[in-house]
Amino acid sequence: MNLGDYMDGILPIYKEAGMTSHDVVMRLRRLLHISKIGHSGTLDPDATGVLLVLIGRATKALPFLEDTDKEYIATMKLGIKTWSDDTSGEVMETKPITKINDFPELLQQFVGKQKQLPPMVSSVKVNGRKLYEYARNHEIVERPLRDIEIYEIECLDAARYQFKASCSSGTYIRSLCVDIAEKSGNLGCMDTLVRTRVGRFRLADCVTLEQVANGEIPLFPLAKALAHYPQLSYDPLADIIQGKKIRLDCKEDEVALCNQEDVMAIYRREQNDVFRCVRGLW
């Protein structure tokens, strides 16, 4: 029996620079001899940090991890505008740098809910095509503004324009760097990026692909990955397995139903106290 035949759970991987998130999944499929592997929250090839990998039945939970909050450490480069909004892209424009006298204070102006313009090199769709598909042909299209929120932002090194940001899912740190630079009267883009947290998973929870190859496979249960959902115990289990509508006494409109601390399904309010199954996770 292959190891993958009985593996289910969340595997936090430290993604190294120089590989795509898809590269990580393909490497794990070869190492673990299992095809049912996916990931949540794509990281750019040059970025490093936390990549949540879902294995076995945990892959069913992928749509419910898309709204997970994240935390990053980034550095910003001033004086240039690039096609991709980071230093890996083609330089489109340069401009003399205007010194930022109070970088920590400038950062605080970006805390809160706001509209953000996604990078041209991103997977956001416009007219049925992803923006990066337009970017490959150097086609410029109107990009839709997106609602994001920066919960906290902290200056780590003013001289290097390095900061840490805690933000809502869907936030592009590349775009944030462009906006910060513009606010200071500069052109700018992202230089480096490390994702330090996805939901409750931090760098300390992660292993490298090399560690996995050496047999270190710290699988976490779905309950931890779905901690942003209210988790309710429910019996009888047969109701969940059969996808029956059930009655629940709770305020939330969407909940994770558990059996012996194992998340079994996501249920959504249909009307009043009646909930229907959105997705079985057994």
Order of helices and strands: EHEEEEEHEEEHEEHEEHHEHEEEE
Q: Count of helical segments?
A: 7
CATH superfamily of the largest domain: Pseudouridine synthase
Q: What's the CATH class label of the largest domain?
A: Alpha Beta
Structure summarized in a few sentences:
Strands 1, 2, 3, 4, 7, 10, 11, 12 and 13 form a nine-stranded mixed sheet that branches.
Tell me about this structure:
The chain is α+β, with helices and mostly antiparallel strands and 282 residues long. The chain has three domains: 3-68 and 200-224, Pseudouridine synthase (2-Layer Sandwich), CATH 3.30.2350.10; 70-197, Pseudouridine synthase (2-Layer Sandwich); 230-280, PUA domain (Archaeosine Trna-guanine Transglycosylase, Chain: A, domain 4), CATH 2.30.130. It has helices at 21-32, 103-108, 131-136, 173-183, 209-213, 222-225, 237-241; strands at 9-15, 37-40, 48-55, 70-78, 80-82, 91-94, 112-116, 125-126, 129-130, 146-157, 162-167, 188-198, 201-202, 231-233, 246-247, 254-259, 262-271, 274-280. The strands form four sheets. Strands 1, 2, 3, 4, 7, 10, 11, 12 and 13 form a nine-stranded mixed sheet that branches. It has a five-stranded mixed sheet with strand order 14-16-17-18-15. The radius of gyration is 21 Å and the shape is globular. It starts with 8 loop residues before the first strand and ends with a strand. Residues 1-5 have low confidence and may be disordered.
Key descriptive features of the protein:
9-stranded mixed sheet; 5-stranded mixed sheet; alpha+beta; single chain; Pseudouridine synthase; disordered N terminus; globular; 17% helix; 282 residues
